[in-house]
Amino acid sequence: MNQTNVQNILAAASQAQRAGLHDQAAKLCQEILASAGDHPLALNMLGFQALARNDFIAAALMFRRATLADPNAPELHMNLARALRSSGDAAGEQAALEGALAIDQRHFMALVRLAELFERAGALAQAAEHWSGVLAMAAQMEERSAAIDEMVAHAQSYVTAQQADFAAALDRGLADARSAVDSADSRRFDACVDQLLGRRQIYANQCAGLHFPFLPADEFFDCRHFPWMEEIEAKTDIIREEFEALFAGMSTGFSPYVAMPSGTPQNKWSPLDHRLDWSAYHLWKNGVRDDAACARCPQTTAAIEALPLADLPQRAPTVFFSVLRPGIHLPAHTGVSNVRTIIHLPLIVPDGCRFRVGGETRVWRPGEAWAFDDTIEHEAWNDSDQLRAILIFDVWNPHIRPAERALLREFFPLADAHGHDPRAQVTE
Description:
Layout: H1 3-18, H2 22-36, H3 40-52, H4 56-69, H5 74-87, H6 90-103, H7 108-121, H8 124-138, H9 146-179, H10 183-196, E1 220-221, H11 229-233, H12 236-248, E2 255-256, E3 278-285, E4 288-289, H13 291-295, H14 298-305, E5 319-324, E6 329-333, E7 340-348, E8 353-357, E9 360-362, E10 370-372, E11 378-382, E12 388-396, H15 402-417
Antiparallel strand pairs: 1-10, 2-3, 3-4, 3-5, 5-12, 6-11, 7-10, 7-12, 8-9, 8-11
């Protein structure tokens, strides 16, 4: 039987099938098999007839022969999986579904059926993995039917429940091990687990200026990198007194931190532009000491000068009092270069003030300093009805070696001589 005759008989069988003439359709399909051998479409039609009779074993036989006749047709594997599922052959169904995915890894329904199979079998981890794949694939669909939306809703519910169970089991199982470790030593491990569980995001450096590669992108640095931290914390009261004296006469010295040039397009900083809602009093700015400002707070200046500040021509150190008025939010932003570390020494902190760096949010506490990488996305809130004041200054990133610091000091003057932008302000 030539190909044309086969196609004509197949067309006649399909027409008979649609008309409800199942015996006639089956006879035509058997004619093809007898004359042309195992034809996948004829076998497929006979398989669906067997499914309609609930003869699942016969249906599986026909579909399996069809997959052998055309091993590159994923839908034939899907039909085989359907017959095997109906007959209770879970292992066979899994093999058929995996066969469809081996042909097309993005076969949505094969992934759905495999997830359902694992869920029925109580294989929780495999079910969650495949339902997660369903969610990822569905997110890329431009249009979805109501049936697919229902599958997606189930997938989301299942994955969420399994993640919650997994998280609870991890928290219980790790409780003793975590209690035996200092919180500073477990911080990176905790972030690793939280990211795995979807409880937090890991943020990368985004430098507006120079990005120094291969440094750890740590949100808050371990204070053990800064052995002098307790010394500056011990001087909090003295520094706060000098700030309060300055602020009481703030007609001079304090200025809006955000001061964009005229004509700057509207952006996230526009509500703070040239306003004292976020104000600063600089002792050093971009590596230049303001002698008059320092003279007005001599003890703060002496405390700062005793520290190993970052020192880069036209860039660092920058030291200033930062004031955030009640109800003000500093939107998420990133800084200039990760060669520096930003230090916050809280002076006046009413309830309702917090600070986020990357995936971690902390509450300032007067006299408790911290160090962070400002090239990782960060933002600040003063949700209280009082002002918040902190001292901000920059030191070297602790992971940059002395020889690298020396090279950076040589680099920037040369870069600036060739038009490199010398402006590099510390951001809160």
